[in-house]
């Protein structure tokens, strides 16, 4: 079993930056990849981006491309979501999720393990 714990959320002004962390534990982390999702009140859970854990290749939703960067530290079993140029519409609860499937999906239904989420609020 894999446990995921996010941290780093908070309140920031528009144009500011935050870095979220997602620490994986529970067993030797060998999941294929990790995704970041967000969910705003009254909206569906949205794919933000993901990373192939082994080779470090990253994928992003169009809405965050050029502003958000995903990275990982294999030694610490931790993934990061660096968010720059934040906008009010980025306000949401952000979750990391891990998948054992041999591909990264934009659908939250294809992820096996989830963190509890961390709130990001961007004030305009």
Structure notes:
- With 124 residues, the protein is mostly beta strands.
- The chain is 0% helix and 50% strand.
- The chain has no helices and eleven strands.
- The strands form two sheets. Strands 2, 4, 5, 6, 9, 10 and 11 form a seven-stranded mixed beta sheet that branches. Strands 1-3-8-7 form a four-stranded antiparallel beta sheet, with no helix packed on it.
- Strand 4 (33-39) and strand 5 (46-52) form a beta hairpin.
- The N and C termini lie far apart (40 Å).
- The model has no long low-confidence stretch (mean pLDDT 93).
Structural class: mainly beta
Major sheet: 7 strands, mixed
Instruction: Please give the share of residues in helix.
Output: under 10%
Q: Could you give the order of the helices and strands?
A: EEEEEEEEEEE
Number of H- or I-type helical stretches: 0
End-to-end separation:
40 Å
Work out the strand percent. over 45%
Put the structure in a nutshell.
The protein is mostly beta strands and 124 residues long. It has strands spanning 3-7, 10-13, 18-25, 33-39, 46-52, 58-60, 68-73, 78-83, 92-99, 113-114, 118-123.
Question: Which short descriptors sum up this protein?
Answer:
124 residues; mainly beta; 7-stranded mixed beta sheet; globular
Secondary structure blueprint with pairings:
Layout: E1 3-7, E2 10-13, E3 18-25, E4 33-39, E5 46-52, E6 58-60, E7 68-73, E8 78-83, E9 92-99, E10 113-114, E11 118-123
């Amino acid at each position: 079993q894999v446990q995921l714990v996010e941290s780093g959320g908070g309140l920031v002004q528009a144009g500011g930056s935050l870095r979220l962390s997602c620490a994986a534990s529970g067993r030797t982390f060998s999941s294929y990849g990790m995704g970041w999702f967000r969910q705003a009140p009254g909206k569906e859970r949205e794919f933000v981006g993901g990373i192939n854990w082994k080779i470090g290749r990253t994928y992003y939703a169009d809405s965050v491309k050029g502003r958000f960067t995903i990275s990982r530290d294999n030694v610490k079993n931790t993934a990061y979501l660096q968010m720059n140029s934040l906008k009010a519409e980025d306000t949401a609860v952000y979750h990391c999720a891990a998948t054992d499937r041999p591909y990264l999906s934009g659908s939250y239904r294809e992820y096996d393990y989830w963190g509890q989420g961390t709130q990001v609020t961007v004030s305009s």
